[in-house]
Each structure stands twice: as C-alpha cells, then as structure tokens.
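Key result, reporting period 2: structure in, sequence out.
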C-alpha cells in the first residue's frame, strides 16, 4: 500500500492502490491525487473533441482581482453534450464511483449526481484564484458541513507549480467558519498528465497562478447528493437526443431520474 505523506501534504497514490485507501485519505486530508488513471490516447481524444469549443471560448485579457474567475483562462461546460470521451470514460469512472459511494451515498440513499462538468485551461499570466469551497451554495448547513460534494480534476496536461496547479488546503473541510488558511497551509497539487485530483466539497481550493508560458488543461467533474440542485443545469445543457443515447447509469448520473419522488414529469406533456 502506498504510504501517505506526512501531515500537511496532499496524499498521493498510484492507480493500483486500493480504492479504500484513497477514499480514507480523501476523508482525512480532504484531498488526494491518484496517478496513471487516464492514458495518452484518451487525453488526446478529449482534447480533440473539445478543441472547437475551446477555440470559441472567450479569454478575458484584462483581469480584475474582484472577479471570481481569473482572466487569461478558457472554460467550456456541457461536457456530456460535447465530449464522448469525458462522458463514456470519466463521468462514471469506477474510481470515482467508489469514492462517491464512500463519501456521498451515506447522505443520499437513492444516489448522487453529476454537479458540474467543465474543461478549464489556465493560460500564461493568469492570477491566483481566490480560495473557495465547492459547497458554498449550500449555506443552510453551518461549517463544517456534512459531505455534500465530491470534486475531481482530471489532468489533461501536467499540473506544475509554475503553470497553475490547483491550490489546496488539506484538512480545511473540517474547519469552522472563522478558521482561515495560513500561507504555509496552502499547497499546490502538482501531478502529471493522466492523474486525477479528488477533493471534498468543504476543502478550500482555487486555481494557482500561471507564471509559465504553457496552458494548463484539466477537466473538472463534481458530484453532489441526489436531493440538492445541480450547479450545472444538465436538463438544458444536454440535448434530448444525447440523453436518449446514454446508458441508464449515465442518465441517472446526470439527473434524468427521480429521487424518492423528486423530479417527476408527466409523459403526456413531453
């Protein structure tokens, strides 16, 4: 079993590590990296599928630190509609399913759902993003909150300290509202292309600054309890013909199913 690094580090595992070890480390540290889970062929396929959409994505050159999203970045959402590679190979990846089964299923007995899908490119000169939590929409629950969201970032390119590797604060998913991160507690999630980073919805994180000449490319997929509203509206983002072509598992995963009576529709209307 790969040994966890010392306290205040990001736990790291290889693809052959027991999933239970990864899930346990994620629960303890609030984040974990697993390397070697996506081959070069799949990365190239996803890049090609999303290339036309990335080319059309607006890049803001003039940045304002008050904005949540840094300038000099590209973002493309609706990946279930736009990338078969992401949909067929990443959305319901076995590793993700087991991790979500561990951390989300106890709070949603009828299942969890895809919360957000997006491809992100952080360009040269992009500033550091403000630290935030994926679960910030759910302020009804006081900090530290129950497990609501599990997030993942799939590395299409290398994530380096100089090209915008994700910033993380291990352990912050268990902090009260008045606890702030010290500089030495903010770590960079460096990882090679083909790796995946998981973090809990309560873990403070943000895109790192890109001081290199390279674009940093990742695919973010987050998952939420089946009884909360999804951040990304899959019902509008995914065409009906695309939904019909998905497997029953994937249709359920993106929210096209009932949850204990929630989400019914009248078939005589549509």
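The corresponding designed sequence is given below.
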């Amino acid at each position: 079993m790969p040994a966890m690094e010392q306290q205040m580090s990001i736990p790291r595992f290889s693809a052959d590590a027991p999933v239970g070890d990864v899930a346990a480390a994620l629960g303890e540290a609030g984040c974990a990296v697993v390397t070697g889970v996506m081959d070069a062929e799949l990365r190239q396929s996803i890049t090609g599928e999303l290339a036309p959409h990335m080319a059309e994505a607006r890049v803001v050159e003039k940045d304002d630190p008050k904005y949540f999203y840094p300038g000099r970045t590209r973002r493309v959402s609706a990946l279930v509609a736009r990338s078969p590679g992401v949909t067929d190979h990443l959305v319901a990846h076995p590793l993700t399913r087991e991790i979500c089964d561990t951390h989300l299923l106890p709070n949603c007995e009828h299942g969890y759902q895809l919360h957000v899908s997006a491809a992100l490119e952080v360009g040269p000169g992009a500033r550091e993003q403000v630290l935030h939590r994926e679960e910030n929409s759910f302020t009804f629950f006081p900090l530290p909150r129950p497990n609501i969201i599990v997030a993942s970032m799939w590395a299409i390119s290398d994530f380096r300290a100089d090209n915008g590797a994700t910033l993380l604060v291990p352990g912050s998913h268990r902090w009260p509202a008045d606890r702030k991160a010290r500089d030495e507690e903010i770590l960079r999630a460096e990882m090679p292309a083909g790796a995946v980073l998981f973090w809990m919805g309560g873990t403070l994180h943000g895109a790192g600054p890109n001081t290199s000449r390279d674009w940093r490319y990742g695919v973010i997929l987050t998952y939420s309890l089946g009884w909360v509203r999804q951040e990304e509206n899959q019902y509008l983002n995914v065409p009906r013909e695309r939904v019909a072509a998905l497997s029953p598992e994937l249709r359920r995963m993106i929210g096209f199913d009932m949850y204990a009576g929630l989400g019914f529709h009248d078939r005589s209307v549509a």
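The domain at 12-253 is CATH 2.60.120.620 (Jelly Rolls). The CA atoms of residues 227 and 261 lie 10 Å apart. This case is discussed further under Risks and Mitigation.
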